[in-house]
């Protein structure tokens, strides 16, 4: 994960402003099914600008944001400055810098695909204590034809040579099952994001695979996003539809 931090260099503002949040059902499931409560300590691994961390902080949890990027952590400090129960650590999934048995739950939002699973698993077991829960969460764009989602996907594939598909689609079910020792649960929730045209461009720009403004194809990309937005917008907004996918298991 350490080397992947450079893929998001210069993208922190767009990431914080234009990435989707996570639905409340995430907390409801963790509380109802996994003995999770507001007094527990959470490590958000690959925390980025703190979007997932905010959900746990608003729940009352003490949260440690762990990320390899100083740029991302600085933005997270700015975004989460109103919370006294948060700390920030420069680290990565394979070496978090956290103490043995210091957290009850490890959360990873949009980040597991950057991990080295075998080494991360050893590290997670070291820092976990009861109930020893790991929750891996992705906002995956819904695949649907004749929709703005379909146009967004088409444009990403056309102009982004490094495009690796949406969210967890780049991770095999086998890799996830192997990480959890073939014992985990799966949940899926609907999650929508309304954006204006600037928001759509910003959402694209926040991705690791996005091309920069200096790219010769950038103006054409913006033109196609503008045309797609015009075709599907209502009240100057379009809706990006997501399926929030959550894989949860115990590591002991």
End-to-end CA span: 23 Å
| Secondary-structure arrangement, i.e. CATH architecture of one domain | 3-Layer(aba) Sandwich
CATH level 1 class label of one domain: Alpha Beta
Fraction in helix: 25-40%
Characterise this structure.
The protein has 252 residues and is of the alpha/beta class. The protein has a domain at 3-142 and 167-192 and 243-250: Vaccinia Virus protein VP39 (Rossmann fold, 3-Layer(aba) Sandwich), CATH 3.40.50. The protein is built from 9 helices and 7 strands; from the N terminus they run ααβαβαββαβααβααβ. The protein has helices at 12-18, 25-33, 51-58, 70-79, 117-127, 148-159, 173-179, 197-205, 218-232; strands at residues 41-45, 62-67, 86-90, 103-109, 128-141, 185-195, 238-250. The protein has a 7-stranded mixed beta sheet with strand order 3-2-1-4-5-7-6. Helix 3 links the parallel strand 1 (41-45) and strand 2 (62-67). Helix 1 (12-18) crosses helix 8 (197-205). The radius of gyration is 18 Å and the shape is globular. The model has no long low-confidence stretch (mean pLDDT 94).
SSE layout and pairing:
Elements lengths: L11 H7 L6 H9 L7 E5 L5 H8 L3 E6 L2 H10 L6 E5 L12 E7 L7 H11 E14 L6 H12 L13 H7 L5 E11 L1 H9 L12 H15 L5 E13 L2
Parallel strand pairs: 1-2, 1-4, 2-3, 4-5
Antiparallel strand pairs: 5-7, 6-7
